[in-house]
Amino acid sequence: MRRMKRLFLFAGYDSQGIVGPTLLYYLQALSVHGDIVLTMDSDCPQDMVDRLTGTVLHAAAVRHGEYDFGSYRRSYLWAKESGILDTYDVCYLVNDSVFGPLMDIGPYLTKMEDLGTDAFGLVLNPHGSHPHLQSWFIGMHRDVFLSAGFDRFISGVTAQKDKDAVCNLYETGLTRLFGAEGYSCDGLFHIKGKRIYNAVESLYRQGLPFIKKSAFTRHGGSLGRQIRRVLGKAGNSTLTSAIISDIDRLNGPGYWSWLTSCSGMDACSRYFRYLYKKMNASKQ
What we know:
Elements: E1 6-12, H1 21-31, E2 35-40, H2 46-50, E3 58-61, H3 67-81, E4 90-95, E5 98-99, H4 106-113, E6 119-125, E7 132-133, E8 137-141, H5 142-145, H6 148-155, H7 163-180, E9 185-190, H8 195-198, H9 200-206, E10 211-212, H10 224-234, H11 237-251, H12 255-260, H13 264-283
Parallel strand pairs: 1-2, 1-4, 2-3, 6-9
Antiparallel strand pairs: 4-8, 5-10, 6-7, 6-8
């Protein structure tokens, strides 16, 4: 069987303008399975971007403020204008809102591509009123990513007032586009609501190969116990070291130790403190 030729349009972001070890790990893991065009919504020093030579086809890093879809647009246009877009069988939109992969991503790519749909993703949120593929890992076969409809959609991405507007127009909007254009889509995992952030350990047991970054700071650090156990079970010391480095860099020295020292009682205590602060904030 001929191997699929894959293109990953990768959207990155770092609040400190750094190509951190977890981003580098992710890019290297993907590069085994296809070509990568990276756009970061961050002002990174050129010498840092240059470190990615040999891992990605092209990399650009400039603060544009258009969130991940603004980065997807720039990566797409680079691939289109350079004349390489139509040489691929599959095109993915991927961002670094997750840590991972916890295991080889190759089998997951094959399973998604074999779902028998025109478009696919790692996660479908089966929301009652607007089910959608989560935009941090979406793939499309040639008929979709080379279509006029997708070209208009992605080329028309513009800055929005906030992340909620981006999600409505572009994340759920992309799944709406697939339906309007007559393309079928499905996700490898069907995950409702906020479980993608909160059910770290349960989702790992189901085989999800990533942890959302927001889980590391969510609900007052009450997910630390789950995170510690998942990374221990995954047994990927290289990835774990990269995560520790980035977590402490972005959240302050010692944050990792505090987060993962969480016992069952600590998890409850942290969560209720979080709820208490949230309730008080809503009254003000």
